[in-house]
Amino acid sequence: MRRPLIGLTAYAEQVQYGRNDLVAGMLPMTYVKAVHAVGGRAVLITPDDPGTDVIESLDGIVFCGGGDIDPVNWGAPPHPATEVDKVRDTSELMLMRAALEAGLPMLGVCRGMQLMAVATGGSLHQHLPDLVNHERHRAATGTDPLAAGASDYGRHDVVVEDGSLAYRLFGRSLTVNSFHHQAVADPGEFLPVGWCPDDRVVEIVEHPGQAFALGVQWHPERTSDLRSFAALVEAAVRGRAVAAA
Amino acid sequence: MRPIIGITSYVLPATWGVWADLPSALVPHDYAEAVRLGGGRAVLLPPDDLDADVLERLDGLVLAGGPDLEPSLYGQETGRYTVTHPERDTAELLLLRAALDRDMPVLAVCRGMQLLTVAAGGALHQHLPDVLGHEKHRPGPGVYGSQSAGFAPGSRIATLMGDDTTINCFHHQGVADPGSLTVTGWAEDGLPEAVEDTRRRFVLGVQWHPEVSRDRRLFGALVAAATEGDP
């Protein structure tokens, strides 16, 4: 049987590999491997092409991590630490609104969860250390928050709201990795259903009107805990069955 | 809805922004841009050797450039200048064979043309300077060799290229035996530069890099063929 096709939003970015230094469509393989590990087939969607027709070919979509979302999208001036990727913003905001309109199962990871808030009228905190007075939500620049020696940063608990979709997936609490300096302030049409207990930073959102629209502020694709990816693929299979009926 | 065109990709350690040497699926952006300008919607295909089921949702396939094919695939020992990426070979051969079975339109670029050749039972020259005695097909790192090609009258590639027969090459391997394919384009030194499978709807391999100039003649033709196949 054909595996559900899961689109992953990707970068079009100046990148160095081997002896090359050029603009490439690209995404860390961790996302691809996470989708394949739970029974989906991943394809990358590059942001160069603001159009939404690709959604008709997909069974599910992951809005992946990346740079900051331009605060102009919620009417705020940029913070000095905000580094935007306008090309991805334009493309992904269009894609997300079309995917919500179509009821396509979606998972938002890090930037992807923040996009869920912004695409539905919400807003972000642009620089979390200003708000919570600590740096524990991000690892040192360029380091892997899961790597040895990074344990002082980027790992914390998340408590989950009773009765939410996230609660059925994760239970009452879980420990996550963390690599972000922005966070959801107003979740728009999404509901906040998980928080970091130390500082009440929003860590999980879900959409009450969608079959499956879940956002997580951490990076499950870089861990062995792929419950969120598995739930997306299950929802994609269910969605396809409904469409075929 | 535009036809969906899948583009094969590399898996390599990549460095960008704050990240260093992170294993990534990537392909030069030129390919997606060429597909877009040709009227299609590009998705990038990370290598996956499990199944070619992604083809059920695609209308056409671009086999992108990349490293050398494993010479054992065409019955040779590995030469001293041959650099391979066997995982990509396995995944792309699976995908290509399934695409050919479905008669899906395929545009195969550089390594892609060599893959097409090997899938058709052909064989490659592993290092052209050893065979031809010159470096015109790869003048230097990052430098494309501009040449004028000749095309077989009446072939698909001759029709598509028209009067402008300039090609931009960057390869050190080439087609020695096209297998069941028909050679329809040649460099001035006689090296095959284009192959076609005339038994199928649209299967075209080119040894040069039409994506760099976003050549709408070729990518537009692929998208047109992919559109015709739409039920």
TrEMBL record, chain A:
Listed GO cellular component terms? cytosol
Name a single GO biological process: polyamine catabolic process
Q: Does the keyword Transferase apply?
A: yes
Q: What is this protein called?
A: Glutamine amidotransferase
Q: Which UniProt keywords apply?
A: Glutamine amidotransferase, Transferase
CDD domains annotated for this entry?
A: GATase1_2 (cd01745)
Q: In the UniProt record, does the keyword Nucleotide-binding occur?
A: no
Q: Name one GO molecular function term.
A: gamma-glutamyl-gamma-aminobutyrate hydrolase activity
UniProtKB/TrEMBL annotation, chain B:
What's one GO BP annotation on this UniProt entry?
polyamine catabolic process
Q: Which UniProt keywords apply?
A: Glutamine amidotransferase, Transferase
Q: Name one GO molecular function term.
A: gamma-glutamyl-gamma-aminobutyrate hydrolase activity
* Cellular component per GO, a single term: cytosol
Extract the InterPro entries matched here: Class_I_gatase-like, Peptidase_C26, PuuD-like
Pfam families reported in the protein's UniProt record:
Peptidase_C26
CDD domains in alphabetical order: GATase1_2 (cd01745)
Q: Which domain of life is it from?
A: Bacteria
Annotated PANTHER family: GLUTAMINE AMIDOTRANSFERASE PB2B2.05-RELATED
- Record-given protein name: Glutamine amidotransferase
Please tell me the species this chain comes from: Actinoplanes utahensis
